[in-house]
Amino acid sequence: MLRANVKTSTSANGNIMRRFVDEVINSKCLEVIDEIVHPDYVYRTPEQELHGRQALKALFTTFHTAFPDLNVRIDELISTDDKVVLLFTLTGTHQTEFMGIPATGKPVNINGMLRSRFDAGQIIEEWELLDQLSMLQQLDIVPVN
To answer: What does pTM read for this prediction?
Structure first.
């Protein structure tokens, strides 16, 4: 779904988040993580918790391998003090095993939300919610009904 009025923030932390999406996720430049992610980084989802830059690089290596055309579009970015909230749409084509699911060759279009906390101009903590049910339905793993 396209959103006509995308709200964005022009704060320094908002710009770092845009760089993260553009360079790390969409352009696969994982070395940028060393620059903009804090050494004590923590990433949380309802299913997992990861610690450190190397764990984040491994996560994106897994995503980029399974979805070589992975792309994240920022739908809304809100920045206040040391936090940035990002609403996004993730798209890609499932080409290799992911989460124990063999390659399906199917495209996905998934909505998500990410809350990031910054320390000294680096991302130190993130909470992410991704519509995994929708992804599993689009991959024909879970029925739509």
So the answer is: 0.89
Whole-angstrom CA distances from 74 to 8, 64, 68, 118 are 9, 18, 19, 18
Task: Residue 62: count other Cβ atoms within 10 Å of its Cβ.
Answer: 14
Nearest to 123 by CA among 14, 38, 29: 38
Cβ-proximal residues to 98 (8 Å cutoff; 6+ apart), any chain: 62, 63, 66, 67
- pLDDT tens track of the chain, all 145 residues? 444 444 444 699 999 999 999 999 999 999 999 999 999 999 999 999 999 999 999 999 999 999 999 999 999 999 999 999 999 999 999 999 998 999 999 999 999 999 999 999 999 999 999 999 999 999 999 988 7
Alpha-carbon torsion 111, 117, 120, 122, what sign?
A: negative
Contacts of residue 74, defined as CB under 8 A and 6 or more positions apart, other chains included, come to 6, 8, 18, 21, 86, 87, 88
**Gap between the Cα atoms of 37 and 140, Å rounded:** 35
- Domain range list for the chain: 12-138
The correct answer on CATH 3.10.450.50 for the domain covering 12-138 is: yes
